[in-house]
């Protein structure tokens, strides 16, 4: 289905956003509670309602906000949590971004682009940990063309280790491409295409992007339009919090989501909300212009969950293990685990190397440690990729999700992928708590699903793999 992409005009109306925030200032308690009551129906929020929640100052209303977010998260996602790892293919970049260690002017960064053989080594190392879903990350250098990116994606998919199997979903975070370029990525079967605007405030955008193609605000703003026009049904957006006022960025993110829905019938598959973290030779990363404290960050996550209830919310290892645990309850549905942020990191025995990283990470736990901890917290880790291979993506996925599809299929499928992990990769202690978790969840499965799930769990124990509903 073809869609008309509008002329390149800035659909982020800064004056309208500022007026919305001004109008919603100092909200009355009754108004906040009314919005939260509506939000529990999981129908989303308007920009005006979101602006109101963003300006809560009463700690008691904060607790009401978090309670509503917990209810919506549980109702839609249950206790399922998707896991993935970022894999950096190159840190070569032609942009000059004041907050990033990959800045082209950073002469202390060791530049590296992985060869096909080096890609295979890193993939095998990730597969050996138990990963099945990757986010492939590319520096934004003009010489890195769509054909080459597509070739690297194909290399990832083609790398199958004897014991550990294969990567089943490769999402991509790379520089914005033309429609033709995105078609090449779609043809090799990428999952989600991810591109962050960083900041939607145009003056700030210009001040922090000093050179390179990334300086073109509108080219980046329409990247997801072009990706969807090319047939990539799942796209991911985000803002880098700390560059500008978070209230503005939140309303701009939602405006961007609405624009995609208006043009393509579906909004973003995922939204990310990273905070600035220290990076080599990037003073701004150490001293954010608009710092975000932990409580504000929790509000951001909770409000996003209520505003876009069926959109995946992604949390990276930039955040500490303790804070990540808190955010699972109030909105986060996907997390990275065991992350390393430079090319070749997973096959590098000396991985703690700040001179090659894009930014510092706070959660250094291994994948197995993360899994053990989240199971202890009552969550089921999932590597399910069934929807993507059965065509349940984009508008189709969202339609099914709103009719309770996630509970019917995604939760049983998460148990099957978790069983694989326990059989092939888990430590003994994680296997013990994991088996108990699966047993308990099977008991709680709807009767019409239980027999099927039990049968397929048994088949996995006997050596079959990649089973799903």
TrEMBL record:
| Gene3D superfamilies given in the database record | Aldolase class I (3.20.20.70)
Query: Would I find Repeat among this entry's keywords?
Result: no
Domain (Biotin and thiamin synthesis-associated): give its ranges. 272-381
Highest taxon above the source species: Bacteria
Ranges in coiled-coil conformation: none
Q: Which UniProt keywords apply?
A: 4Fe-4S, Iron, Iron-sulfur, Metal-binding, S-adenosyl-L-methionine
Q: According to its UniProt record, which cofactors does this protein need? A: [4Fe-4S] cluster
Q: What are the BP-aspect GO terms?
A: sulfur compound biosynthetic process; water-soluble vitamin biosynthetic process
User: Annotated Gene Ontology MF terms?
Assistant: 4 iron, 4 sulfur cluster binding; catalytic activity; metal ion binding
This protein is called what?
Iron-only hydrogenase maturation protein HydG
Taxonomy of the source species: Bacteria, Pseudomonadati, Thermodesulfobacteriota, Desulfovibrionia, Desulfovibrionales
